[in-house]
Structures are given as structure tokens and as C-alpha cells.
Specification:
Layout lengths: L1 H47 L22 H13 L4 E5 L6 E6 L5 E6 L3 E6 L10 E5 L5 E7 L5 E8 L2 E8 L9 H5 L5 E6 L2 E4 L2 E8 L9 E7 L3 E6 L5 E6 L5 E6 L5 E6 L4 E8 L5 E10 L6 E6 L5 E6 L3 E6 L11 E7 L14 E4 L5 E6 L2 E6 L5 E5 L7 E6 L4 E3 L2 E3 L1 E6 L4 E5 L7
Antiparallel strand pairs: 1-31, 2-3, 3-4, 4-5, 6-7, 7-8, 8-9, 11-12, 12-13, 13-14, 15-16, 16-17, 17-18, 19-20, 20-21, 21-22, 23-24, 24-25, 25-26, 27-30, 28-29, 30-31
Length: about 450
């Protein structure tokens, strides 16, 4: 009886055990296959993505190993050297923010910069290839954001336009002319620059786009520096550089200004605005050399779209304009406009710069070299040199700055470059840098 009971009990138990074993074997095989699948997927993913290689073993120690930079820096240096443009000769550092404007003194040896960090700096350029430059830093009043700068009298004073809560203010600082680098004693004795004159809200609430300065030598002018301030709206004002007296004003009546520039001899002022025409006024001087009046002179008509930038030639008889219509025009303004003689278009060149999509780029800034042979132009972060006679490209520096180029200026005279005189161009950028560039070899064919 007991044996029968045991037999009847052991059969279900044995079946349960066998079933459990079968289930365990099934799950064991399932998980084995899943692990194999996961391993396969992982191996596939690892094959698809780049495999991080082990860092190379350290190089054998050498006598100079303690002077070498870390590997990451070396790679960055190689990349920098690869991108280095052969005309890029120096970089002026020390700015705390975007450099908004720059200009050279008449002798070319001093370079003034305006920076969004609220300061202006005057660099002494005794040699363009120097590893370091002495500079004078002037902090503007609190809340003043400099937008433009120009030398006033030679290299001894600068005029800076700054945007404030009340509008734009002009400051003239005297005693900024830096002495030669070797004259350390005189450098130490330089008086602290002080404000010689100041004008507030010169264009109401509008900011100043650019300042242009010229030594007035035309006709009966006495050689004084005249400065033009161009507002972002439609007004342009003329100032006597030394006294600060307002000597003239014009209204472009052309929506908004792009820029304004004085001719090198102080005779004309030309304005580019958001229209296809360029307006030119003549500054009339009295017998005593002072500004008598500003008269409407002529209009340059021929472009089909807005003129973005312009530049007078060194002899003040021609204007070069660049437009969104994709062309550059050279105009003869040495005409008897008061006898209704119109300015003539001498040459038309296509803008040779294109963006990534193949569209013609617009030039933001233009500046012609002191000898009148090379036209330097900028578009965004690209710097380009053209032959002023033919419009042919002499050289191009893409990504000349790590950001947009904000200003451009040629040194009026050759600068020493390792003991050899050289024609030098300066550019400023939103990357907190000012760069010095050699002029490319000019060729007319």
C-alpha cells in the first residue's frame, strides 16, 4: 500500500523535475544566444565607429624635451602654421573685446585702435615684424563704448566716437603720440592723455559708423585736420580737429548711411548709403583757411544696387565704389560740376569674390594703398587685394580673422620690416585682434 502511494507521488515529482531541467536548459540556451547577439551587435557597432587608438608611447627623452610644448599644443601649432598666410606678418594683441575701428597716424608709426572693452590704444610701430609693441591705453568714461577713431593733429592727438546712453559723444585726447620704443626714459615721462574737447549727442541718439580725417590742403585751406563723423542715420558732420568746432553738416536723405569719407586733400566728402547713388559734397574754404560752407557737388550714378563701400584715390581726383550689384566702379570726379559737367565712369570691374553658394560677395570695407596701385577689400572674414588698375586679384586671405573684419587701413608711409621698408596694411576684427599684412606684389596685367 505504501509502495503504491510512493509510486503515485514520485511520478509527478519526477515529471516536474524533468520539466524544470528542460526549462532551465531552454532559458540557458536563450540567454546564451542573447549574449551572442549582444556581443555581435557590440562588435558591429565598434567596427562602425572609429576605434580609439591607444596613446602612442612617449618619445625618447632628448636634451630639448623639457622645452617642448604638450602634444595637443603641437598639433594646434601645426594647424596654425598650415593656415598661416604668407602676407600675414604680425598680430597686435591685448584687446579685451572686439576691435571696432583703427587708423594710422600721418607718419605711419602710430596705430590707434578703438575696442568694445571701453578703451582706446595707441601702438608704436617701430618695426612691423617686432615680437612686442609698446602701446598707450586710455580708458574712456564709464558706459562709453567706442565705435570709431581717427588721428587729429599728426600723431599727437586722437578723436574717438563713443556710444553712450545719451547718444554719441566725441572725445579728443591730446598727448597720445608714443615715443620710439628705445626711448624708455621719455616714454616714462609722457603726461597722461587728457580730454582737450568733448561734444555730446552729436547725432542725437544715433551711433557713429565711422570717422574720416584729412589734412585740408586744397585751395585756401590752411592744412588743419578736418574730421567727418558719419551717423547710422542720414546726418554727417564736419569738425575742426584741433579746436573741436563744428564747421559743417549735411544730410544724405538716403534712408541710412553705410559710410562717409573725406578726400585726402580735404576738398570733398562722399557718402555711401542704402541706395545705388553716391552723393559728393565740396568743402569751400575762406581766405583765412577756415571752412566757409559745404555745397552739394555731384552724384555718382551707375550702380544698380546699394553701394556698400568707397575709397578716394590718393590724388583726390577719383573715387572707387563697390556695390551689391556685383561691380566695382572707378569714377573721375575732377570735373567742372558747377558747369553741369558730370563725373565719368572710368572703369567697371566685376567683384571677383564669391560665397560658398557661388553668389557674388559684397565688400564691407575698401582702402587703396598710398601709391594708388593696390585696393584692399574685405568681406566678412575674407581679406582680398586687387590691382587698382585692372581689378585683377593679387591675393586672397580667407578667414583672415576668426570672425568678421571690422576695419582696414594702410600705413601712409612705408614701415620698417626687419630693417627693410615695406608697405603695410592693418586689419581689425571681432576676434579681439589687429593684424599687420604686407602688400602683395602689384601687377597691372
Amino acid at each position: 500500500m505504501a509502495t503504491a502511494d510512493f509510486a503515485s507521488f514520485s511520478v509527478p515529482l519526477l515529471s516536474a523535475i524533468v520539466g524544470g531541467v528542460i526549462v532551465l536548459l531552454f532559458f540557458a540556451d536563450y540567454f546564451r544566444r542573447k549574449r551572442a547577439e549582444v556581443s555581435t551587435i557590440t562588435a558591429t557597432d565598434n567596427a562602425a565607429r572609429p576605434v580609439a587608438s591607444k596613446p602612442p608611447p612617449p618619445a625618447p627623452a632628448s636634451k630639448k624635451s623639457h622645452h617642448q610644448k604638450p602634444h595637443a599644443h603641437s598639433a594646434a601649432d601645426k594647424d596654425h602654421n598650415r593656415k598661416h598666410h604668407h602676407l600675414d606678418v604680425n598680430t597686435l594683441k591685448g584687446h579685451g573685446d572686439s576691435v571696432t575701428s583703427l587708423c594710422f597716424s600721418s607718419d605711419g608709426r602710430n596705430l590707434a585702435t578703438a575696442c568694445a572693452d571701453g578703451a582706446i590704444r595707441v601702438f608704436r610701430l617701430d618695426d612691423a615684424s617686432s615680437k612686442s609693441f609698446k602701446f598707450l591705453k586710455i580708458n574712456l568714461p564709464a558706459g562709453a563704448h567706442p565705435t570709431a577713431i581717427a588721428f587729429s593733429e599728426g600723431s599727437s592727438s586722437v578723436v574717438v566716437a563713443a556710444q553712450m546712453l545719451s547718444g554719441s559723444t566725441l572725445f579728443m585726447y591730446g598727448g597720445v603720440g608714443a615715443k620710439p620704443s628705445g626711448d624708455s626714459k621719455q616714454q616714462a615721462k609722457l603726461p597722461v592723455p587728457e580730454v582737450k574737447w568733448e561734444h555730446q549727442k552729436i547725432h542725437d541718439q544715433s551711433s557713429v559708423l565711422n570717422l574720416s580725417a584729412a589734412s585740408a590742403t586744397y585751395g585756401s585751406a590752411d592744412g588743419s585736420t578736418i574730421i567727418a563723423s558719419c551717423s547710422e542715420e542720414t546726418s554727417i558732420k564736419l569738425w575742426h580737429g584741433k579746436s573741436g568746432k563744428e564747421v559743417g553738416a549735411v544730410d544724405t536723405n538716403q534712408l541710412k548711411n553705410n559710410m562717409a569719407e573725406l578726400s585726402p586733400n580735404g576738398r570733398f566728402i562722399a557718402a555711401a548709403a542704402f541706395t545705388a547713388d553716391v552723393k559728393v559734397w565740396e568743402i569751400i574754404y575762406s581766405k583765412d583757411g577756415s571752412v566757409k560752407e559745404v555745397l552739394k557737388g555731384m552724384q555718382l550714378k551707375g550702380h544698380k544696387s546699394a553701394v556698400t563701400s568707397l575709397s578716394f584715390t590718393p590724388n583726390s581726383e577719383q573715387i572707387i565704389t563697390a556695390s551689391k550689384d556685383g561691380t566695382i566702379r572707378v569714377w573721375n570726379i575732377n570735373v567742372r560740376y558747377h558747369l553741369d559737367e558730370d563725373p565719368k565712369t572710368l572703369k567697371v570691374f566685376p567683384i571677383p569674390l564669391h560665397d560658398a553658394k557661388g553668389a557674388v560677395s559684397s565688400y564691407d570695407h575698401m582702402c587703396i594703398s598710398p601709391d594708388g596701385k593696390i585696393l584692399a577689400t574685405t568681406s566678412g572674414s575674407t581679406l582680398q587685394w586687387l590691382c587698382a588698375d585692372t581689378g585683377n586679384v593679387l591675393d586672397t586671405a580667407e578667414k583672415a580673422h576668426e570672425g568678421d573684419i571690422t576695419g582696414i587701413a594702410w600705413a601712409a608711409k612705408s614701415l620698417p620690416m626687419g630693417g627693410v621698408p615695406a608697405m603695410v596694411l592693418a586689419t581689425s576684427g571681432s576676434d579681439k585682434k589687429v593684424k599687420l599684412w604686407l602688400a602683395p606684389e602689384s601687377r597691372s596685367s
